Amino acid sequence: HFIDSSGLISWDLFKQDADYPFTDWSFSGTTEEEFATLMAIFAAEDKEVYIADYEHLGVYACRIIVPGMSDIYPAEDLWLANNNMGSHLRETLLSLPGSAWNKEDYLNLIEQLDEEGFDDFTRVRELLGLATGADNGWYTLRVGELKAMLALAGGDLEQALIWTEWTMEFNSSVFSPTRANYYRCLQTLLLLSQEDARQPLQYLNAFIKMYGAEAVEAASAALSGEAAFYGLPAVDHDLQAFPAHQSLLKAYDKLQRAKAAYWSK
């Protein structure tokens, strides 16, 4: 389980007969003996060990890194799912709100996301390793919702409907009322677009009464591919659009300066 005690437990924990006899945790041994035991385990596994001692913040800490081993997550999970796994896509994805690509390029990006095996439920900010803040659409954006936007920009309305409905089913619980209303309106317009015999203008006034003029205008712009990336602000190379990320970088820089000052003594 995880640090917040969420997770799964095995049915075997409820068995009357235990697989192993109960043994109290052993806290015997000095810190030096525990360290020697740990190093012996690494040596037996033929692992390289990197150790760093930190005292620059006035509190001692020891960091031990062993490539290929993890005491929390399975090593393969860290390899496949981490905050750098989509870093090569950062510039591409952040440029989408102001982009004017050929339609097929947007659809090709959907294929690339599939080929690279990114989970549709993954938050894009985590995929890119960004602290976006909670005041914009990047905060709740998941890969599945991004695919809906890309399909709209690429003019594939059938695929856009599939991913819009996915978004409403799996991500709408974290949307603001305005964003949730936009997606309801978008779904309605996408459904209407599948019926060639319908005249969209015949339903315009009714839709405005149902969803509001602003939502209808935004959804119509997305449907036409004119503005498919609803609620995603443009982001420059310096990431100034994300104050939360800037604060994180400043905190990191502060720590590095403290570390450098300590080691220069």
Automatic annotation (TrEMBL):
One of its GO terms (molecular function) is transferase activity. One of its GO terms (cellular component) is ribosome. Keywords: Ribonucleoprotein, Ribosomal protein, Transferase. The keyword Ribosomal protein applies. InterPro entries: YcaO-like_dom, YcaO_C. Residues 1-111 form the YcaO domain. This is 30S ribosomal protein S12 methylthiotransferase accessory protein YcaO.
